Amino acid sequence: MPSACRATFSQARTPQPLLAPSPGLARVSQQSSPFPFPVLAAASFLPPARQGTGRTLRTPRRGTPRSRLRLWVLGTGPPGTAPCSGFRRPAAAVFPGLRSTPCSGRAGTMFIPCGETFPDLSGFTLLMPAVSVGNVGQLAIDLIISTLDMCKIGYFYTDCLVPIVGNNPYATANENAAELSTNAEVYSLPSKKLVVLQLRSIFIKYPSILDPDKVCMLHWLVHLFGWCPLLFFTYKSKSFCEKLLCWVENSGCTRVIVLSSSHSYHRNDKQLCSTPFRYLLTPSMQKTVQNKIKSLNWQEMEKSPCIPEIEDSDLCVRVPGGGITKLLYDESCSKDIQMAVLLKFVSEGDNIPDALGLVEYLNEWLQIIKPHVQGDDPTASTLPWKIPSSWRLLFGSGLPPALF
């Protein structure tokens, strides 16, 4: 399995067997853990006679000989344990599976091709959704894949997304209905230089106690209070964004377009009186498409106070309800990647009209498909978007006739 960006950790040590449980040992096994991976947090005060070979933290205890604090955290990487090192943050992470080396190789870190070779995506435009309010971006990507009859060229193998599996969402006959789909798949249309990533899952939460940045704080909590909190959680969205942009750079994609949405109730007075569509461009993207965007008379996403309750606070771009939209945008700005974000202000509910509006908004720019001549119905779309077969169950199965 190709993996150019391997999760590594320096200062690797031979796994040490755990000592016999002591009164201060707090152990979370796989059976009793709420996490989808083995977690072992052991904070125990061991007498000097039972001292092991790992590093220890010496803490005086009143009325008793000096005892030693030992802390283990077992993450998602290879089996074994890695003792923490003092109160200072280690020079490099000693927790498996949490740090990645810089991208190398042709394919990046997560992409697995359907064939034996990696497809050539040089000069392609990547379209992808953000898992956001109303799932508007994902529905819009569904419309694009179904309408253009795009071919699946691979998928993402990652531990950042909740794993799912299902039938082919774009099946047109019984022959291809049994094909499996997963949480992150890649489709391509070489004739239009388009590659599409469809996300069908949310990001996994994990206890941030395993984050090397939190090790120092954790040491002090255990040192001062004698307990090890497993109450801090964070999402793997940042790790996913870094790996995704790593793949974009290595695959040769020219630009990235993110389809997203934002909460309509967060709009200010100016946004309420104008179109619900907005766009964002990274500095490198502005150099190439700014004139085209201006000719469309689109409105850029306005900046708002970073702290909504304080009007005098600094202004920044905020996308409430936009999922990883802001994170992807910031990362692309720092990496000088050409990225555009197209979004719509929406509310939860039947978001099919929102998806149709967003994909037509995109089509004004890219001209993915040509418009039809408008018929008698003035409200009907002039673009022949093909509804995926899986949308029949978008709101569940219908009511059985026997009820009536």
TrEMBL record:
It holds the Pfam family PAC2. GO terms for biological process: proteasome assembly. One of its GO terms (cellular component) is nucleus. Keywords: Chaperone. Belongs to the PSMG2 family. This is Proteasome assembly chaperone 2. It comes from Oryctolagus cuniculus. The gene is PSMG2.
